[in-house]
Amino acid sequence: MQLTFASYNIRKAMGLDGRRDPERIVAVLREIDADIIALQEADRRFGRRLAALPRALIENHTDYQVAPLAMTADGMAWHGNALLVRKRMTVLAVRPITLPMLEPRGALCAELRVPDGSGGVTMIRVVGMHLCLSGLHRRGQLRAVQADIAARPACPTVLMGDFNEWSRRGGALRALEAGWQVPPLGRSYPARAPLATLDRIIASPEWHCLGAGVHRSALAAIASDHLPVFARLALG
Prior knowledge:
By secondary structure, this protein is an alpha+beta fold.
């Protein structure tokens, strides 16, 4: 079974041209064409905390469903984090993961039943997150995510999101336990002239990486201040 995973900080759909344009974000998502996408900053910050991407826009104009966990009635995200999964997949459960933090941050975890293409199904786990600006707290947050996963039944797992980690191999990534794979994706921030590898996709040992990188296009270069990242992973 092969799946494409992607992570994208959509900056509340606010582009570098100063326009809030959900349809442009959806167009970028279509370009990526991933099976499972972790979004960060998917809700607006103030007032009713409206979803940056209206649910009707996602449901009627994409092949995705939103994993159902939101902080507000008008939102789609948990502390800005949302997961989009193909409609052919079944969301078995979705829950928040409590993170130690100085600023509002969060992670959400979904268990999915995925058709394997041969008539069977496979259960996988996906965690979307947006980690703290503080390096010390990022390490604690990664440890908290791993502790939550370790307390659950084992299954193939993917962690992804905006890690806010400028170091390519060190920093908070040193908190990862043995076995986690960190494919080199490339620089994703800032979008127009990327300097930092803030966005990551990390896979448990069951996965084999077939390819990974940063999605670059004319739309992606202006739709948000981050570029999307992706990884094609296989089981077996």
